[in-house]
Design brief:
Blueprint (H helix, E strand, L loop, with lengths): L6 H17 L2 H8 L7 H10 L18 H14 L5 H15 L2 H12 L5 E4 L15 E5 L2 E12 L6 E8 L8 E7 L5 E6 L8 E12 L3 E2 L6 H36 L1 E2 L2 E2 L4 H29 L6 H26 L10 H13 L4 H11 L3
Helix pairs in contact: 1-4, 4-7, 4-8, 5-6, 5-7, 7-8, 7-9, 7-10, 8-9, 9-10, 9-11
Length: 379
């Protein structure tokens, strides 16, 4: 395996950076943060219709470009650098992956073309109020009713769940335990009995929602995969999302490093740039080491996803754990290097710090993933 990006992938990165420097500037990110929707529909239309980013990893048979996860990687890094406010992560990295991994051919034909075109947004409602990970954490239930199913329960921390057109809900059969009896269902965002509420959170660059299912009825063809046997598909879809999130964290961590280095060059103290002081040099050097190490971990996981590895769990968890630590460390050091100005609302450093903390716990915190790797290794 070559640990480097191809020229085509690097060109995608350069094109993405040019676009995002304008359309996801600090001013536009702040404007999106102030809205309940959380993004600018015009920018979403541009990146989906003109740039075809939403079609990148969707197979050609369903209207996509059929590229690999390694092609997605540099794009996620650039989105992380600018804290892009858009339903890309929720729709492509969570929702579309759930359909690709667990959906039938008929379901893929029905949903993926409009997702690839940017016409349909999707959210994955997996997490519960307990914020725990794993099959045991799923408490929302489903029961048979005629030819369909009835869903009851609540989902929390659903990325873009208040605005998505479709919601993929993970639930378990009443009375089941563990990984047995788990199913995923495609639920329209306007389904009867479905209540969606925007939940203000620390990181306003990525909107979260609470979803209540009060007897929501869905048809039998809304179920993804075999009845009661969807945990493996759900876990793989989550692992693919974790890899994409790790790549995003790398880009954001690198941006924190770049901001720190630039400020250290221009900020003078005692008649010299603060970057000339050994303490600042050490901080920047440590940040660079963590960024490059995180990039290697995320690259490895993305490459394995592109090769359709059967078990991605260890690579996905390793990447998510290390990249979470790297991003949080760089975001914190960025504030320290900037000093007092870094603590203010007017400076963007706080936005990266909040995104770092929120991304750290999204889809499992580092402690969960280290334990998961240890279990996979038999330790």
């Amino acid at each position: 395996m070559e640990f480097c990006f191809s020229e085509e992938q690097n060109e995608l990165r350069r094109a993405a950076r040019r676009f995002l420097e304008v359309e996801s500037s600090e001013a536009r990110v702040r404007a999106a943060m102030e809205t309940e929707r959380g993004y600018d529909p015009r920018v979403w239309k541009q990146l989906s219709e003109e740039l075809a980013w939403t079609a990148l990893t969707i197979p050609e048979a369903y209207g996509g470009l059929g590229l690999s996860y390694l092609d997605l990687h540099p794009l996620m890094e650039e989105m992380g650098r600018t804290l892009l406010c858009a339903p890309f992560f929720s729709t492509i990295c969570l929702g579309a992956n759930a359909l690709l991994v667990g959906g039938s051919d008929a379901q893929k034909d029905r949903y993926l073309p409009s997702i690839a075109a940017g016409e349909t947004t999707v959210a994955l409602a997996y997490a519960e109020k307990n914020l725990a990970q794993g099959a045991d954490a799923i408490e929302t239930t489903y029961s048979k009713r005629g030819d369909g199913y009835v869903l009851r329960g609540s989902k929390h921390y659903v990325v873009d769940g208040h605005t998505s057109d479709l919601i993929i809900v993970t639930a378990r059969a009443e009375g089941s335990r563990g990984s047995e009896g788990i199913c995923s269902f495609v639920v329209p965002g306007d389904a009867a009995g479905l209540t969606r509420t925007w939940t203000p959170s620390m990181d306003q660059t990525r909107k979260l929602a609470t979803i209540v299912l009060d007897g929501v009825t869905v048809a039998a063809d809304a179920r993804l995969g075999a009845e009661g046997d969807a945990w493996h598909s759900c876990e793989r879809a989550l692992d693919l999302a974790r890899i994409a999130l790790a790549a995003e964290q790398v880009g954001a961590a690198e941006m924190c490093l770049d901001m720190s280095v630039e400020y250290a060059k221009v900020r003078h103290q005692f008649g010299r740039p603060i970057g000339s002081f050994q303490a600042i040099k050490h901080k920047c050097a440590d940040m660079l080491t963590m960024v490059e190490s995180a990039r290697s971990a995320a690259f490895h996981a993305s490459a394995l996803a592109g090769q359709d590895e059967v078990d991605l769990s260890e690579a996905a968890s390793s990447a998510k754990a290390f990249c979470s630590d790297a991003f949080f460390h760089c975001a914190a050091e960025n504030i320290q290097i900037h000093g007092g100005i870094g603590f203010t609302w007017e400076h963007p450093a706080h936005m990266y710090f909040k995104r770092a903390k929120a991304s750290e716990v999204l889809l499992g915190d580092p402690a969960f993933h280290r334990e998961r790797v240890a279990q996979r290794m038999g330790l």
